[in-house]
Design goal:
By secondary structure, this protein is mostly beta strands. The protein has one domain: TonB-dependent receptor, beta-barrel domain (Maltoporin, Chain A), CATH 2.40.170.20. Helices cover about 5% and strands about 55% of the residues. The chain is built from 3 helices and 30 strands. The strands form 5 sheets. It has a 22-stranded antiparallel β-barrel. The chain has a two-stranded antiparallel sheet with strand order 1-2. The longest helix is centred in the N-terminal third of the chain and has 18 residues. The chain is globular. The two termini are about 20 Å apart. The N terminus is likely disordered.
Length: about 575
């Protein structure tokens, strides 16, 4: 039994994340972040291929963000994918799975995974993914034409090998993904600059990771990640695209003291991004010395990030890296995380944030002076869990996304061009937020959670009078419910609201429509090997933009099956 469970765990690490990168393109491209509490729903926040273990140099952006992949808010309906299904049972002897779903707007999702080798010391898995859409979408604004076809397709494959040695574990991977999409944004009656020509992005990835078994002597970890990428075209569909290479090296070492209650160590990282053409290369060298303590009811990690940035001149930055957690009762605790540091904003990072950025746009790196997140988790009330949280982040050279719009080409006898893509607007941004979540399962068949978040932004040095935090909602709320009708049938409901959203267009602030998104889903296990699922999105028939001029899909339905073999 232990061996079988261990095999399933390895499969989930290598394939579960891979299966979650599906992209509804327009139905979901915004994410409401929260502190990480491991649940099945959190798998839907992942938007990358499985990564080898790497030292954590800085905290991820915990603010609201817009995404390019088929990512979903944590409050999204999570119609179980194969990885979810496998975690819902004590063990599974199946080696592979295939899942396929289709719906209107030509939405198609497919994933295939198989464990070629699985024993106590070796694991070899292969995975394939397809995700695509190609339906006409109506613009929110009055314009001619009133709609356009939004096309997206991603195909990806990965081969991953894990080997367990006597003192450490080794992880190897090789992957390739190919993405194609069009700039379907509103031109407001102007000629299309990209004329719906499909932009492409191909990424080849090799990775190596190793991590020692935990001991009371010296613990170490290391990683190497190489990526080569190329895009289809540049500023025009007839110009050459961007190419480049990434080298990401990580190392970590720590020494336990006092029977493991105290650890002293350092994490290090080197990131090198080397572009073709006129892009500036980027290099960042980081070191994170730390000391970690723990007691019966508390734990703390005290450290700092020392970062050297070698692009556009050498810069040296120091940022705190502190984590505190205090247990006040059996199921309640207080926590605080104080982070900061450089965000490199490299090309592939930007493409994972918003794929519709104007080609050949290099986004500046930003620096968070402080990134504070604190809160309380309260679980002492039977059947309820309360999460109260708040935070503050101050970032220099942060960026907001707005429509690129009209471009003067410098020639008096030539017309002004209009680009239906997005460009960054730089700002020094301060973000304060407070919020809370209540989760209840007092009636066992029903799992219900409600979450709200209020954000306050201070936008400086944009060159725009009365500038707003464009693209970032001021208020968010969501409801998620899962009802187990019977042991093999689940119904799911999700509602997501985002308000106080702004953009900037034609030299003016534009109030964007609120998001009122209601979704329903159902999942039915016919037997141990076969299940079917159905989900309906945007049941309120709402029209709203993800970014200004880039609307979301209307009402859509997707049904499919999962087969384990």
């Amino acid at each position: 039994m232990k061996k079988t469970i261990y095999s399933i765990a390895l499969l989930l690490v290598s394939t579960g994340v891979f299966a979650q990168q599906q992209d509804s393109l327009l139905r979901r491209q915004m994410e409401l972040q929260r502190e990480f509490n491991p649940t099945l729903q959190d798998a839907n926040k992942i938007n990358s291929l499985p990564a080898v273990p790497q030292p954590a140099i800085k905290k991820a952006n915990t603010g609201y963000s817009s995404w390019a992949g088929r990512t979903t808010p944590p409050l999204e309906i999570a119609v179980p994918n194969p990885a979810d299904i496998m975690t819902a049972i004590p063990y599974n002897t199946k080696r592979g799975y295939v899942s396929l779903g289709a719906g209107n707007y030509a939405n198609i999702d497919g994933v295939l995974g198989y464990r070629l080798v699985e024993n106590e010391k070796n694991s070899l898995t292969v995975n394939f993914l397809h995700s695509s859409t190609g339906g006409d979408i109506s613009y929110v604004q009055e314009s001619e034409p009133a709609d356009n076809k939004a096309f997206f397709m991603e195909n990806a494959g990965q081969l991953r090998y894990g080997h367990l040695l006597s003192t450490f574990k080794l992880d190897l991977k090789a992957a390739y993904s190919h993405t194609a999409f069009n700039y379907y944004g509103n031109t407001f009656g102007n000629d299309r600059h990209y004329d719906n020509e499909n932009q492409t992005l191909g990424v080849f990835n090799l990775g190596l990771g190793m991590e020692s078994d935990r001991s009371d002597r010296v613990n170490y970890s290391g990683s190497f990640d190489y990526r080569n990428f190329a895009t289809g075209y540049g500023l025009t569909p007839t110009s050459d695209g961007l190419k480049g290479n990434y080298i990401d090296l990580g190392i970590g070492i720590d020494k336990p003291y006092q029977e493991g209650d105290t650890r002293v160590g350092v994490d290090g990282k080197f990131l090198g991004v080397f572009y073709s053409g006129e892009f500036d290369n980027l290099s960042i060298l980081s070191a994170n010395p730390f000391v970690a303590f723990s007691g019966l009811s508390w734990k703390a990690r005290l450290g700092a990030d020392l970062q050297f940035q070698m692009s556009g001149g050498t810069k040296f930055r120091v940022a705190p890296n502190v984590e505190l957690d205090l247990k006040v009762a059996d199921h309640s605790s207080l926590y605080a995380n104080i982070k900061g540091g450089i965000d490199d904003n490299s090309f592939l990072d930007v493409m994972s944030e918003v794929r519709y950025v104007t080609p050949m746009t290099q986004v500046r790196s930003s620096f968070s002076i402080v990134d504070l997140e604190a809160g309380a988790r309260i679980g002492e009330v039977s059947g309820f869990r309360f999460d109260l949280f708040g935070g503050f982040r101050k970032t220099d050279d942060d960026h907001l996304w707005i429509m690129d719009g009209w471009i003067y080409n410098g020639a008096a006898d030539m017309p002004v061009l209009f680009r239906e893509s997005l460009k960054p607007l730089y700002t020094n941004l301060a973000h304060t937020h407070v919020g809370g979540m209540i989760r209840s399962n007092i009636w066992s068949p029903l799992d219900l959670s409600v979450r709200v978040k209020k954000s306050i932004y201070t936008v400086e040095e944009t060159g725009i009078t009365d500038a707003k935090a464009y693209g970032k909602p001021g208020f968010e709320a969501g409801i998620q419910a899962t009802y187990a009708v019977m042991s093999n049938l689940e119904l799911l409901l999700n509602y997501y609201f985002a308000g106080d959203r702004w953009s900037y267009f034609n030299d003016d602030n534009v109030k964007m429509d609120n998001i009122n998104d209601l979704n329903l889903g159902a999942h039915y296990n016919i037997n141990e090997s076969f299940s079917i699922q159905l989900k309906a999105n945007n049941l309120l028939l709402q029209k709203y933009d993800i970014w200004y001029g880039y609307p979301a899909q209307g009402f859509n339905v997707m049904g499919g099956f999962t087969f384990k073999f």
